[in-house]
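Checked the freezer inventory, then went back to the computational side. Two predictions to log before the end of the day. The first one is the construct we discussed on Monday; recording sequence and tokens without edits.
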Amino acid sequence: MQLEEVTVSADTAHSAASASPVHTPRVAYFPDSFHEVNGVAHTSRHFEAFARRRNLPFLCVRAGDRSQAVMDDGNVWTLELPRSFLSFALEKDLRFDPAFLRHVPLIGEMLERFQPDLIHITGPSELGMLGAGLAHHLNVPLAASWHTNVHEYLARRSNWFLRLLPRRQSAATGRKIEDLTLSAASILYSNARVLFAPNPELCQLLERKIGRPCHLMPRGVDAELFHPGKRSRDPEDREQVLGFVGRLSIEKNIALLAAVQQELEQKGFRDFHFLIVGHGADQRWLQERMPRAEFTGVLKGEALSTAYANMDLFVFPSHTDTFGNVVLEALASGVPAVVTPDGGPCTIVRDGETGRVVPDEDFSTAVAWVLADPVRHAKMRNAARAHALTASWDSVFEDVYKAYEAILPQQVQTAH
């Protein structure tokens, strides 16, 4: 297969490498997803943008719609390769291609030109496994960031099967699925010399399970795009809007949204509706149970920022998110959030200050508590925005580059 567009030659690549400061590592990045709508893709796009802003030597090898190799401004390179007809869906817009190995010669050629000092992978996808194998083959250090709790996702997506078993056996089987999946993922991550995770609890888990140092890699937010000033609702509109942004599937615990609506109505709340942004396998199920809710599908850019700003409270019931980019985007938009005590979102929300951190059974009570007092709600909106302003993408990736130092040869040290 020939690349449709190749703007990299061996001579220009060598020149770019020579022009780069010797103390700046040359990073080859293999993300699980890049163009899709999920946390890995969101982080990966920002990582590449960071490298471009800083003019760092950075190669992003990713799956996309067409074959292309591009070198931008001498330092940021991309190699985008298509998945085959053998690929199968993991999500509505995310696929896995068991035949991606056919691209090894092209990827190997690009790596030979780029001469990476390290390879960074983001998970157990075809890209992640390929990146880990190439790091071993080229004898360069491997870094790995954990973005998705695949073990918890698989267990929840096995509910259709687990429900067929007796209760005790179902619980034991669910735990076994989680343990086996975590062990399988750990085999890949054990090849890395340094790990990254988005919350402290997950970092500790990986260090215990894999025995490698793990560094925090939280998320930043574009506080100009996600801004309270994007609110377009009539100031006289007194209806309260409860928002959710994310994949509409079982691992996001979206059934709780319908339960919250029902419980609020039973408590006497009537002047509210849900604004639900996203798509997924369980969308129809949710629509049938929430006929008053507004379902927008996937939104991006200004449309998404306006949707956030038009919310009064963000309701995010997921137990499996490792961080919760959408929670941070809501806070930046001046929208307090109600989240569970599990995973990453509870590390973003300050209970009683920028939202509430409560178990499932207390969600409707927490929502009512926030919205029933306009003064308290206004204070939370201001505190949410102020807290989000402390989250910078630049600081996130600066810390990642600092962590690279521990696995790089002495002659390759990161710039500060």
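The second is the one RB wanted added to the comparison set:
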Amino acid sequence: MSRVYNFSAGPAALPQDVLQQARDEMLDWESSGMSVMEMSHRGKEFTSIAAAAEADLRELMAIPENYKVLFLQGGASSQFAAIPMNLLRGKKRADYINTGSWSKKAIAEAKRFCDVNVAAETSMCTPSQDELNLNPDAAYVHYTPNETIQGVEFPYVPETGDVPLIADMSSTILSRPIDVSKFGMIYAGAQKNIGPAGLTVVIVREDLIGEAMPDTPTMFNYATMMDAGSMYNTPPTYGWYLAGLVFKWLKGNGGLQAIAKVNGRKAFKLYAYIDGSSFYSNPVATNSRSWMNVPFVLANSELDASFLAEAKEANLVTLKGHRSVGGMRASIYNAMPEEGVQALIDFMADFEKRNG
């Protein structure tokens, strides 16, 4: 078997150790005689898996006791509607910071439920704190710390006073330590740094739960999910199990402090090579560059197809940029080893030598 270096933005690469453990446990989890996929979500076997996963996530992120952790379905995009339904709490207005594609989708959905004040709107960079036009009477402030498509990342956590800060951390969660207490809610699709697609993690401060709009669907009501331990219905059990394996993998490799050092080195190396080349360039403002998603373009776009084809032959795959922006994109989440980034740099240098 030959594994490739997978630079996909999501579903993304998973740690090989996790995949191997899941393979070994596929038919028989801990001598239970069955696969995790076959277990009752209410049985003692799976409830132990679920409890361990939550405990490990809480430890990794140092999540305070007054925050609830929910393991939900529907992807991060379903939270675009769930957030206003749960967090407006009688107010009519919310602030949104628009820095790219996912911010725009969140804004469009929120407009179905409330008046949206776009507190700042930028392209290929992030606004400074002073540029944020925040409303102190807003129900909450929503932002996307890392725009997966554009490769734009906030270098700071916005200050919002007493207004709860809501963050779509789908592409940045678990990449480094964060202070959870600065946020009213954090949410993330699993398919980048957590596990397989189909699971969404919501970390929400307890005092924000319980005032959902009267017509909020049962499955979108955070109070319902909190009271049911994320098991009002059958949850995505196998995705939850795999997420738990990823959490243990992170703990076994030194936690978020250690993975942050690795991620910092990976990003620095790749950006340094791009910046030192006249053949490749990155369009994002230097102080807003993502650690996780690195877009780049070739000086001659007519070579794009050749670059992708030859990269695939070199076992470097899913490097094509999003259709809305073009070019290339290397997503270098936690599971991408430093060797993979170096292999990409070596290939880029060789391609430039032959085509520059």
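For RB: The longest strand covers residues 115-121. The first helix runs from residue 16 to 24. Let me know if you want it refolded.
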